[in-house]
Specification:
single chain, 425 residues, Rossmann fold, 3 domains, six-stranded mixed β-sheet
Length: 425
C-alpha cells in the first residue's frame, strides 16, 4: 500500500502489506445459492448444508431444555460466575441506555398532537459465531440487550460444533430458543423461516464472510444490525504513550483473526519506532503469534502525524471499530474525536474489558462504518414509531397549506383528502 494514499501531514512508519478490501464474488454466489435453497426447501436444505459445511448430521436442530441445563451445569464455578458478572454489567448498562429512550407527546400547534412510541422489535435472531476461539461473551452482547428492550422472542443460532460453554452462555443470557445451525444457512433460515426455525424480524450478531454476505443479501424482508468485517483496533497517542502497553493491546486484538486491522496513530516519532520494536519483541512469546503475527504483518500500521489536527483527522478517516486514547489529556482528546465504533479513554481503558465484561457492547461497526453508525445497543432492538391526532382546531391550521401544496403538485386526490374535513367539524 503506497504512502501516496495517505493525506498530507501523515506518513507510514510501518505500512500495511495488504489492502483490507477483498474480492467477495465467489462468496456472493455461494450465499445466493444457499439462500435460494433454504427458501425453497426449508429444513431439508439446512440439513444438507450442515452436512456439507459443518460435517454435522444431527437429527434435531434445536437444543432442548435438558441439554441447555446440562451445559450450564458443566461450566466450572469460576467461568459461570464470570459469565454472570458480564451479563449483569451488560444488562445494567442496557437498562440505563433504555431509560434515555423516551416516548414523546407534544401539541406542536393548537389542536395538532404529535408523538412517538418506543416499541420493542417482536422477534430477534441472534447469530452467535463459532470461530477460532469460543468467545463466551458473544451471546451476552447480542441476547441480553434484546431481553432488556422487551422483545417477545429471542432466538440464537450457533454452529453445530460450538463449545457447550457457548450454549450455556446463550441460556444464561436469556435465549428463548437455541438452534445448532451455522453459516449462511442459519441467516437464510432466520430471515425466511423453515419448518423448524421461525422467521425473525431482525438479525443481529457477527460472523464470518459467508454470514456477513448472507445478512447483506436478506436485508429488506428482515432487518440487520450491521455488516461486520474483521476486527480493528487503533490507538491515538502522543509522546506520553507507553510503547509496551500499546504493543500489548494491539497484539491482544490481532489474535482474533489473520485479517484483524491494528494500528497506532501518533504525533511522536520516538513512540512510533519504540512501539514497532515492542510489537516485534512481544510476538515470539505470544502463543497465538501465528494469527497475530499474520495480522500484524499484513494489516498492521503505524502512522506518524505532523500535529494533533492531522492525527485527529486521520483517526476520523479510519473510523476504527475500537479506538484507544493514550494522550496527556485523554478526556480532552476524546472530545475532539467523532468517528469510531467505541472509544476507550485513557490508558486504563483496554479494549479487552469491553470485549468481555465491562458493560458496553462489543458488536461494533468496522470498515469505516463508524463514520455513520454506532455499535449494537439496546436501541437496536426497538423501533421509534410516530403518531398524530388532530382536533378541528388543528385541522383548520394544517388543511389549507396541505391543500395549496397539493394543488401546486398537481395531486387533486391529495387536495380532496386534505379538504374533506374542512367545514365538516
Amino acid at each position: 500500500m503506497a504512502s501516496a494514499s495517505l493525506p498530507p501531514g501523515v506518513q507510514y512508519i510501518k505500512a500495511p502489506a495488504r489492502d483490507s478490501v477483498t474480492d467477495t464474488a465467489a462468496i456472493e454466489t455461494t450465499v445466493k445459492d444457499v439462500i435460494a435453497a433454504v427458501r425453497a426447501e426449508g429444513d431439508i436444505a439446512v440439513r444438507r448444508y450442515a452436512l456439507q459445511f459443518d460435517r454435522s448430521d444431527a437429527e434435531a436442530f434445536e437444543v432442548g431444555h435438558a441439554e441447555r441445563e446440562a451445559a450450564v451445569a458443566g461450566l466450572d464455578p469460576q467461568t459461570r460466575a464470570d459469565t454472570e458478572f458480564a451479563i449483569a454489567n451488560v444488562r445494567a448498562f442496557a437498562q440505563a441506555q433504555l431509560a434515555t429512550i423516551l416516548p414523546l407527546e407534544i401539541e406542536l400547534l393548537p389542536g395538532v398532537h404529535l408523538g412517538h412510541r418506543v416499541i420493542p422489535i417482536r422477534r430477534i435472531g441472534a447469530y452467535v459465531p463459532g470461530g477460532r476461539y469460543p468467545l463466551l461473551s458473544a451471546p451476552i452482547m447480542t441476547l441480553v440487550p434484546a431481553k432488556v428492550a422487551g422483545s417477545d422472542e429471542v432466538i440464537a443460532c450457533l454452529p453445530p460444533g460450538a463449545n457447550p460453554a457457548i450454549i450455556a452462555g446463550c441460556h444464561l443470557a436469556g435465549a428463548d430458543r437455541i438452534f445448532r445451525v451455522g453459516g449462511a444457512q442459519a441467516i437464510a433460515a432466520l430471515a425466511y423461516g423453515t419448518e423448524t426455525i421461525p422467521a425473525v424480524d431482525k438479525i443481529v450478531g457477527p460472523g464470518n464472510a459467508f454470514v456477513n454476505e448472507a445478512k447483506h443479501q436478506v436485508f429488506g424482508p428482515v432487518g440487520i444490525d450491521q455488516l461486520a468485517g474483521p476486527s480493528e483496533i487503533f490507538v491515538v497517542a502522543d509522546a506520553t504513550g507507553d510503547p509496551e502497553m500499546i504493543a500489548t493491546d494491539l497484539l491482544g486484538q490481532a489474535e482474533h483473526d489473520v485479517r484483524t486491522r491494528v494500528g497506532l496513530i501518533t504525533t511522536d516519532r520516538a513512540l512510533a519506532v519504540a512501539t514497532l520494536a515492542a510489537v516485534e519483541a512481544q510476538l515470539p512469546g505470544l502463543p497465538t503469534n501465528a494469527v497475530a503475527g499474520a495480522a500484524w504483518r499484513d494489516y498492521g500500521e503505524i502512522t506518524l502525524c505532523e500535529n494533533e489536527a492531522a492525527m485527529i483527522a486521520y483517526s476520523d478517516r479510519i473510523a476504527a471499530e475500537h479506538l484507544q486514547v493514550h494522550t496527556a489529556d485523554p478526556q480532552a482528546m476524546a472530545a475532539k474525536l467523532r468517528d469510531y465504533g467505541s472509544l476507550f479513554i485513557g490508558t486504563q481503558a483496554s479494549v479487552v474489558y469491553s470485549d468481555k465484561c465491562s458493560g458496553t457492547n462489543h458488536t461494533l461497526p468496522t470498515m469505516g462504518a463508524g463514520r455513520y453508525t454506532g455499535g449494537l445497543w439496546v436501541g437496536s432492538y426497538v423501533k421509534i414509531c410516530t403518531h398524530q391526532w388532530l382536533t378541528p382546531e388543528g385541522v383548520a391550521q394544517v388543511a389549507p397549506p396541505a391543500m395549496r401544496q397539493s394543488i401546486a403538485e398537481g395531486l387533486e386526490g391529495h387536495r380532496r383528502a386534505a379538504a374533506y374535513r374542512v367545514g365538516r367539524n
